[in-house]
Specification:
By secondary structure, this protein is of the alpha+beta class. A 3-stranded antiparallel β-sheet has the order 1-2-3, covered by helices on one side.
């Protein structure tokens, strides 16, 4: 999955970007307080993208 597509799906679900790191971005779901690291690669492998979406309540 493209990183931009993953970020778009996170935003639609109400998640916000907490901060940018060197190799990862931290996203949080304000309703649940869950924080998840998203790699800053152009392409993110499908199993990892699904795990991130489920963890943040967006999938």
């Amino acid at each position: 999955m493209k990183r931009r597509e993953l970020e778009k799906r996170l935003r639609v679900a109400g998640c916000i970007l907490k901060r940018e790191g060197g190799s990862h971005s931290l996203w949080t779901n304000p309703r649940t307080g869950v924080v998840e690291a998203v790699p800053r690669h152009p392409e993110i492998k499908e199993p990892l993208a699904i795990k991130i979406l489920k963890s943040l309540g967006a999938g």
